[in-house]
């Protein structure tokens, strides 16, 4: 089940960079992100009502819920939406690919709940290099003027905020069901997003078109409601560092979609980048592989009988 959900999330989030770019054609960044999560919250609330899932959270957990919500949905998504106004989807993917690096740092040095071993460290950086290889053309064509530099910093800071939120959720909220956790995190995060957008006068810049609204509905229903419930379920069952590696697979999915839909050529450098990503992921998971096969071996070893 974990493999299936991980694969589905990779496929879904491989399409969201393009969908965000389309949504920004008619919606300003902070209210555009808000609209996406309003759709997601509505669907999650309806699902919880139908399935009679309690959405209550203990009062003592509210502070941590709000903090992780702010880091993921206000800080992370707010900065990503704002930054992608000035960057191509590929270049945005490069700088957001720092996410697993930040997860490894926070897990090992800040929260200290997951060891950042050398193979993981090398694997993560190899995966990042693979993303860089894939989108190298877009990167060198980018003219880094003042706004582009600010946008780049925004994407990197957003990745750091989302990474810290992921690590904190892993540490404090493993006992929560995925649906109420997802809904509460989205709810408190988008309240701040909406306030920022309204204070900046973004409501006057809204120009909805069918193309934009389809993108928002897709981002809300598939890229948020479904994806984040699956994401938090996975976070309860695998390590935060392992889960963060999904960020490296999404560019590969995006390339394949561009090839299928638009006939964009996949050159040798891109193939090398894809290979680097998957070798990096495999390298980062060496310890997990060892533990898995160790458990399998122990399960099949005969139990020794006590001597009489």
Can you give a write-up of this model?
- The structure is a single chain.
- The protein has helices at 2-23, 29-51, 62-83, 89-96, 99-110, 118-134, 136-141, 146-172, 178-199, 210-235, 240-244, 246-262, 268-284, 286-300.
- The chain has 308 residues and is mainly α.
- The protein has one domain.
- The chain is globular, with a radius of gyration of 20 Å.
- The model has no long low-confidence stretch (mean pLDDT 85).
Largest sheet: none
Shape: globular
| Number of E-state strands | 0
In helices, the fraction of residues equals over 70%
Structural class: mainly alpha
How many domains comprise the coordinates?
A: 1
Which percent band covers the strand fraction?
A: under 5%
| Global Rg | 20 Å
Distance between the termini: 45 Å
Low-confidence stretches: none
Listing every helix as H and every strand as E from the N terminus to the C terminus, the arrangement reads HHHHHHHHHHHHHH
Average pLDDT number: 85
Q: How many helical stretches?
A: 14
Concise description?
By secondary structure, the protein is mainly alpha-helical. The chain has 14 helices and no strands.
Q: Helix and strand layout, with pairings?
A:
Layout: H1 2-23, H2 29-51, H3 62-83, H4 89-96, H5 99-110, H6 118-134, H7 136-141, H8 146-172, H9 178-199, H10 210-235, H11 240-244, H12 246-262, H13 268-284, H14 286-300
